């Protein structure tokens, strides 16, 4: 199973966030060159300096590290990144990781501008990046790879987080759909559910308080922030596996980093492709052992 990323180039949005940092660290350790994308130039530089000092696999010369300071909410952000990627000579992997939590609380109390901005940042920007970069993915005969980071609300209702949940559910359905379209271009497109991570997003839930977020959400955020962390490391390992040749042909799936046997899925590529396993589907009574007459 070839999991080396030596010679690969990856673009990671939200690079200096909690999960973004873990993903960048793991991709570099596995040998990939990185385009680090974020809003703050100084935080990108700090991340690049940290990564430059870390060990890497697969060669004598260190993998490249480039920073691109861009606000993804800006109208020309996607064009800017497409130009950077073209100048770099294309990509092997796009990781749509940047996101915002959006308004917390019942819909009628949500600021409408903030709700729409959440859909834009968490759904439309990742989709626009896939669209803009699809022609630049896949180098040196390798398959191109896209990993979209999903999140809470994608697979079931998440009250008080409607904008975030709707964006993440749509991102998963987009992933399934685009995987079919991108197959003819030899690009694998997957989404991952990283599990609960202690980050500024989790802090936003605590700051909103249990009256707005709900008891379960507040308790989960509190637990994550007072725990040992570590979920992001497993999610980063899954991203690296999806970036590697080991996962070739695994596409159109939502994989849970903490729960799914993803590292063995290379043995099930055809079985997966012929099934709806790890996808979003409508449940009918028969799926629950019931038979309702019309
Ligand atoms: N935390 C969790 O429990 C959890 C669970 C499931 C899924 N996820 C997903 O995991 C991913 C990473 O989240 P995280 O928990 O690591 O949170 P995080 O630390 O807040 O990371 C989010 C990143 O997105 C960046 N970002 C936000 N708006 C941006 C913009 N307009 N332009 C450029 N960058 C922007 C942030 O940069 P700034 O700091 O400059 O804003 C930050 O680097 C997200 O897709 C999230 O939905 C998180």
Q: Which descriptors would you attach to this protein?
A:
single chain, 294 residues, alpha/beta, Rossmann fold, 7-stranded parallel sheet, 10 helices, 12% strand, binds NADP nicotinamide-adenine-dinucleotide phosphate
Word description of this protein:
- With 294 residues, this protein is α/β, with parallel strands linked by helices.
- It has a domain at 79-281: Rossmann fold (3-Layer(aba) Sandwich), CATH 3.40.50.720.
- The chain is built from ten helices and seven strands.
- It has a seven-stranded parallel beta sheet with strand order 3-2-1-4-5-6-7, with helices on both faces.
- Helix 1 links the parallel strand 1 (9-13) and strand 2.
- Helix 3 runs parallel beside helix 4 (112-133), helix 4 (112-133) packs parallel to helix 5 (162-182) and helix 6 (200-208) crosses helix 8.
- The protein starts with 8 loop residues before the first strand and ends in a 21-residue tail after the last helix.
- The model has no long low-confidence stretch (mean pLDDT 96).
- The structure holds NADP nicotinamide-adenine-dinucleotide phosphate.
- The site of NADP nicotinamide-adenine-dinucleotide phosphate has 27 residues, from helix 1 and helix 6.
């Amino acid at each position: 199973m070839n999991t080396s990323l030596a010679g690969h180039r990856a673009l990671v949005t939200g690079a200096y966030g909690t999960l973004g940092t873990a993903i960048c660290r793991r991709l570099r350790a596995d040998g990939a060159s990185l385009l680090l994308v974020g809003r703050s130039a100084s935080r990108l530089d700090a991340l690049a300096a940290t990564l430059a000092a870390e060990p890497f696999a697969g060669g004598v010369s260190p993998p490249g590290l480039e920073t691109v300071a861009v606000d993804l909410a800006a109208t020309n952000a996607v064009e800017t990144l497409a130009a950077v990627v073209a100048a770099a000579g294309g990509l092997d992997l796009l990781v749509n990781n940047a996101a915002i939590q959006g308004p917390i609380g019942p819909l009628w109390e949500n600021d409408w501008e903030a709700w729409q901005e959440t859909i834009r940042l968490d759904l439309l920007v990742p989709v626009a990046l896939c669209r803009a970069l699809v022609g630049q993915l896949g180098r040196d005969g390798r398959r191109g790879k896209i990993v979209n980071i999903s999140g809470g609300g994608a697979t079931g209702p998440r009250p008080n987080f409607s904008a975030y949940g709707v964006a993440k559910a749509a991102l998963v359905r987009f992933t399934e759909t685009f995987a079919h379209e991108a197959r003819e271009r030899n690009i694998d497109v997957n989404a991952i559910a990283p599990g609960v991570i202690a980050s500024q997003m989790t802090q936003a839930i605590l700051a909103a308080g249990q009256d707005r977020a709900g008891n379960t959400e507040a308790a989960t955020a509190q637990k994550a922030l007072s725990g040992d962390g570590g979920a992001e490391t497993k999610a980063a390992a899954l991203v690296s596996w999806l970036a590697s040749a080991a996962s070739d042909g695994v596409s159109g799936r939502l994989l849970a980093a903490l729960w799914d046997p993803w590292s063995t899925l290379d043995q099930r590529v055809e079985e997966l492709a012929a099934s709806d396993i790890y996808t979003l589907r409508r449940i009918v009574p028969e799926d629950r052992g019931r038979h309702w007459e019309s």
